[in-house]
Amino acid sequence: MKKTPILHTRDGISYVVPFILITSCFALWGFANDITNPMVKSFSKIFRMSVTQGSLVQVAFYGGYFAMALPAALFIKRYSYKTGILVGLGLYAVGALLFLPAAKLGNYWPFLVAYFILTCGLSFLETSANPFVLSMGEPENATRRLNLAQSFNPIGSLCGMWVAMQYIQARMNPMPTAERALLDDASFEALKAADLSVLVKPYAAIGLVLAVVFVLVLLTRIPVRKLGDAGLSRAFGPSVKRLWANKAYREGVVAQFFYVGAQITCWTFIIQYGTSVFMCEGMAEQAAEILSQRLNIVAMVLFCCSRFLCTWLLKFFKPERLLAAFATAALVLTLGVIFLDGRVSVYCLVAVSACMSLMFPTIYGLALKDTGPDAEIGSAGLIMAILGGSLLPPLQAMIIDGGALSGSFVVPAVCFAVVLAYALRRFTSVSQKPEAQ
User: Fold this and answer.
1) Could you give the CA distance from residue 225 to residue 332 in angstroms, rounded to a whole number?
2) 3-state secondary structure string, the chain?
3) Domain residue limits at 261
4) Any idea which of 64-78, 91-105, 138-152, 264-278 has the lowest mean pLDDT?
5) Rounded CA gap, 260 and 123, in Å?
6) pTM (2 decimals)?
7) Is residue 80 assigned to a domain?
8) Is 230 part of a structural domain of the chain?
9) CATH of the domain at 189
10) Per-residue model confidence as pLDDT tens digits over 297-308
11) For the chain, what is the domain count?
12) How far is 335 from 238, CA to CA, in rounded Å?
């Protein structure tokens, strides 16, 4: 049996170079995601806020994804994937560079505005890049191809975590949170200004990197092709009606909402949870934070390696079956965080990342399968589902502020149960198709 190539050649132009460039964008938004997760703890410390107030970083971050996904899809339908990617890179760069005036103002809210603009850019990038990668080859390879591209996302995430640990957390003033609360106003303002000057430098640097990538994408010839090349109507209203009637897509959006919520709650509070456990063992706050950040990096290494492994496993197993297996493992490990004590529970939380690696691109691929000309609008719905990363962390933060740190992980546990239900429904649906015919 002849193997189909993973990438097309169209109009005499190979997709190899465009695929590499677009894959670099996956790494870039991975960097943004995972330099941001530790900022909940950092902003809480810098501005002397509660965990719930600090989690507004995630509300602004993932709120931008939600707000811009549909406008991005309509923009892409009118123009092209390449134009959408350029707009995304531009907004990402502007948001990152806005951290400089936000630090000068010394107020929390300008940072939230900068995060919102930055993630409007990420929304454009994801709405453009994910379906573009799906369209770069034969449909039977689409989910595997997206998993391959998404494998470079955690590499960017690892870079974000490393920068957060080495260039932000390690260089901020180590004064414990309790002692900061006792400072007089003048001392607090001086300490805050010094910490903010440390925090903004990596964002300014990534803004410059984005400008370089923008120029490279602009100058690269990319074949104009969309998943919607089929002859059906591409009008917005009919697209929405067809997508709503598509059970796999409709349920996929719900599953993606809860998956992203699970991912962000686990990664946002891994440092918070690890720090608490290690301090209970007698470790100083700063040492506990550093160890927790290292474990956070271990979690991302597991996530990265597991995604490459899953890309290989998809050659042999149906996506629905793998998704069900990994969702089951994630649910069991999250229950371990809730009911086990000490370091074992922290290790369970770290191990969850290996199970999450498959989920986003696989749900995405399953949901967009057979959507044809509706793929751009469908992609917007799946990116809007990233709102789960905005709404669920504050819910978990409120449980934490109520004094139930380990119990708060019931939030991601419920999320993984929803993903498992979706995988089982897709597997059952695929299994029944031959009988229906």
Assistant:
1) 42
2) CCCCCCCCEECCEECHHHHHHHHHHHHHHHHHHHHHCCHHHHHHHHCCCCHHHHCHHHHHHHHHHHHHHHHHHHHHHHCCHHHHHHHHHHHHHHHHHCHHHHHHHCCHHHHHHHHHHHHHHHHHHHHHHHHHHHCCCCHHHHHHHHHHHHCCHHHHHHHHHHHHHHHHHCCCCCCCHHHHCCCCHHHHHHHHHHHHHHHHHHHHHHHHHHHHHHHHHHHCCCCCCCHHHCCCCCCHHHHHHHHHHCHHHHHHHHHHHHHHHHHHHHHHHHHHHHHHHHHHCCCCHHHHHHHHHHHHHHHHHHHHHHHHHHHHHCCCCCHHHHHHHHHHHHHHHHHHHHHCCHHHHHHHHHHHHHHHCCHHHHHHHHHHCCCHHHHHHHHHHHHHHHHHHHHHHHHHHHHHHCCCCCHHHHHHHHHHHHHHHHHHHHHHHHHHHHHHC
3) 10-224+238-436
4) 138-152
5) 14
6) 0.72
7) yes
8) no
9) 1.20.1250.20
10) 899 889 888 988
11) 1
12) 43
Q: Would you say how long the chain is, in residues?
A: 437
Residues 6+ apart with CB under 8 A from 313: 322
pLDDT for 5 beyond 80:
no
First to last CA, the chain: 24
Cα–Cα–Cα angle for 293, 297, 300, rounded to 5 degrees: 140
Query: Does residue 181 belong to any structural domain of this protein?
Result: yes
Classify residue 4: in a domain, yes or no.
no
